[in-house]
Amino acid sequence: KPNDISKVRSYVKSHYAKANSKYYGIAKGKNVIIIHLESFQQFSIDQKINGKEVTPFLNSLYHGKDTISFSNFFNEVGQGKTSDAENMLETSTFGLPSGSVFTKYASNTFQAMPAIISQRLGYSTAVFHGNVASFWNRDTVYKSMGYQHFFDASFYDVSGEKSESWGLKDKLLFKDSVAYLEKLQQPFYVKYLTVTNHYPFTLDTVDQDPNFKTSDTDDPIINNYFITNHYLDQSVKEFYSYLSKAGLLKNSIIIIYGDHYGISESENKTLASVIGKNPTTWTANDDVQLQRVPFMIDIPGSKLGHIDKTYGGEIDVLPTLEHLLGISTKRYIQFGQDLFSKQHKQLVAFRDQDFTTPKYTYTAGKLWDNKTDKVIPTSSISKALAKKVSTWQKAVNKELNLSDELIYKDLLRFYKPKGFKTVNPKNYDYGVSAT
Ligand code: GP9
Ligand code: MN
């Protein structure tokens, strides 16, 4: 019902975090290139195996002079995995408590970034992905979001050993998509969804780097994970050298993020010893801390590079990016907060209603001290801390519930942001390659 939207609208208004004038609009007019690192977790950054960096190129970006790199950024996906990450980044609304927005609510009214950036700044928009368009119902959802192009598997030669598990191998995706990228009107907003670094992380020997010797744990999934991490790193490196040669780096902003965990909790104890942690004292809080994924904003030539310790998550990316592009966000219904904003609250909501903050984590029904990695016994939780924790839990539950209601009831039908033109999915046909 229309009045349900006003409840959501007033929550989002009260939760609004204003832009930081230091960063507002600094990327306006630049191409936006989003690199979605499949199943890539933060622990691989700066990790060495047998004396060799797993991801030397991503490490160089992470510490680069032009890259703002977040060290306390968390994935917040639920069962929707990649599609939840995409939903959060394109709409700043959460995935669902179960199932996927993309499969269940593909024809909802979205007010997503592809439509916003093309309507307000005239950007062209496209997704490049080596899997079939129907996976995660992407072809339907992208039309609801207003993506102008979707270069899925049908646009590439994915035959034989060119593909691995979920589609065209990443090096080929970056290479073969150039023909389409170069036809896009600039400035463009493009997203590359990689797939090779995906469970069970197998990779043909011919594609492996003989100079990278992976771990020798008794879990082949973990050992393979570092091999496909390394391959993904080489793929991104090759893409960057293309962007540089094509003269695209200097007028682009590159957003790089990991979509969700690759190693599941049941394997974390085996992983622990590889990443320098003690498996015998591994805790549920350690499982949460491993949910960090990279979030890097590379602005070539900006010299703005630094490590940003702000605690945040995928829900926060859209407002952060909109403000960098000089797009005011007050008018939209978006749950995230600009990570550069002084009003940004460092409270990371997970889909299961657990949460983490710089000092405390709530998970497995207990409150954890992040410094000691110990449970804080109820008896030693002060009244003040107990009050804070219950305020945090209420805030997390409220935000998730309102986001769910917005999606379940398709409430954006009843809301018109200033100047926003409703997207008509029928206006898009992905079968036609960019002419
Ligand atoms: C599928 C690829 C992997 O096209 O994006 O999706 P995931 O299994 O990670 O949700
Ligand atoms: Mn994924």
UniProtKB/TrEMBL annotation:
Compartments (UniProt record): Cell membrane
Keyword annotations of the record: Cell membrane, Manganese, Membrane, Metal-binding, Transferase, Transmembrane, Transmembrane helix
Binding-site residues for Mn(2+), renumbered to this chain: E38, T82, D259, H260
This protein's GO CC annotations: plasma membrane
Keyword Iron: no
GO MF entry, a single one: transferase activity
Highest taxon above the source species: Bacteria
Membrane topology: Multi-pass membrane protein
Pathway: Cell wall biogenesis; lipoteichoic acid biosynthesis
Residue stretches making up the Sulfatase N-terminal domain: 30-327
Amino acids binding substrate: H198
Active site residues of this protein: T82
Family, similarity comment: Belongs to the LTA synthase family.
Name of this chain's protein: Phosphoglycerol transferase-like protein, alkaline phosphatase superfamily
